[in-house]
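Exercise: predict the fold of this chain.
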Amino acid sequence: MLHKTSRIFLAAFSAAVLTAGSAFAQQDTNKALIDLLVKKGVLSQQDVTDLQAELAASQAATQPASQPGSPTVAQSTTTNTVVVSQATGGAPGYSGAGSGGVPVTGSASSPMSFRIGIADFTPFGFVDFTGVYRNENTGGAIGSSFGSVPFRNSSTGQLSETKFSAQNSRIGLRIDSQVNGTKVLGYLETDFLGNAASNLYVTSNADTLRLRNYFVDLRNGPWEFLAGQDWSLLTPNRRGISPLPSDVFYSNDMDTNYQAGLTWARQPQVRLTYHATNQFALALSVENPDQYVGTGVVLPSAFTASEVDTTAASTQPNVFPDVIGKAAFDTKDITGLPWHFELAGVASSYKINTYTSAINSDATEEGGGVSGGVNLEMFKGLNFIGTGFYSYGGGRYLQGLAPDFIIKAPDANGAYSIGLVKASSAILGLEYTVAPADTVSAYWSRIDIGQRYNKLSNGTYVGYGYPGSSSSNNKDIEELTLANTYTFWKNPAYGALQLIGQVSYVEREPWYVAAGQPSKANMTMVFLDLRYVLP
């Protein structure tokens, strides 16, 4: 251990470095020096803590008096001190009117942030009042049921629906810290779109709190690790490969089911990302699987339906997690404006069993799909967005509007097997920031679903899209949308007040319709939403 005088000198030198670093924004270099001095035994952790406290006191003494609403320091009565400060991470941005509208970007931090120990806590969210009108009764709430638009020659097709709701209001918490050079992010996001009681609208309108995202993300150098529930890696990004909603594309629609044809899920996962350069990144994610057939597939009568997800229960077995990979490239070298390109793929494993007194047989199948996307700022304020998805056995990632597979008729031995179903989608869109407070968006999207079925010896069918199948066996679904987000005012200290509007036309075509019934069903819907976003 060095002589005390030398330690005092080095401590004073370190304080000067901290001060200079604050002035010249070289915190990373200064931290590395301090860490080295601690490691060599020159400084103790208490020395560093004392120096930081002295520096903070010195800076506070030179600052003007706090203005109303400014962060303050509150001493607790216990041994811990809670410092209410502006978090380094700041409040998360929002991407899409369906989840957050125009970001509050007046400041990189939030006046609601507070510090406990070495972690910055930032509450975030918004309060929504949403109104929706549909010219046909889909029986849904503020999230549209694209796959069950009623036909006009029915009572539901003759009745319109109007609903008010606060369900899309959001509450969340972001936690930022840094431990031994590793950036640590904790993220929790909830809304009130959970499973609703059947008598929800009678008296109390007691909407249920629902988990959206809840994960921890670690970043050290080029490596990033995530564990928890987040948007699937298969969901398109607006930029890079980032877990934050502000960097994920799910449209600017107010509809809480977003745009038909969007490839997405929010599910538990473990993700590893390698940021090779500032422009290029690779990621691999292992995510929660689901043997999904949905409600439209007709199963063989003797097959054990609990082996697959028909949406009746969530107890079906799964043989292996879904494996998803993605590569992303972001550049300004082409036009001087940000351009984003990405390519992703998913692999899913399915397994069923036939068990009788005469047979015990397993059947497996490997499903998969590929997706691509671009987000190109064509000129200042105007972004072109395109996404595409093609799969055999990936239909559940299209909002469950297509089955992953069917159960084929039994073979000569009485054993069942799996038949993968083809599903694809595309989205084309434009997002234009007309003014800093006004963003206009337009999207076209389409889903195509293949047919797969077997004819039984008695003349009936099993599968999806067979002759005489239910009108819920859709062949394709299209949506046209025009959306607008207008910000009346925004202030980093007070938040923002926004008006979000959306007009959409949805059309679906089943594989089979009965004689005399229209070949397609269509619907028009209008959303208006008044939103206050927390600062």
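Check your answer against the key: Residues 1-27, 61-98, 100-108 have pLDDT under 50 and may be disordered.
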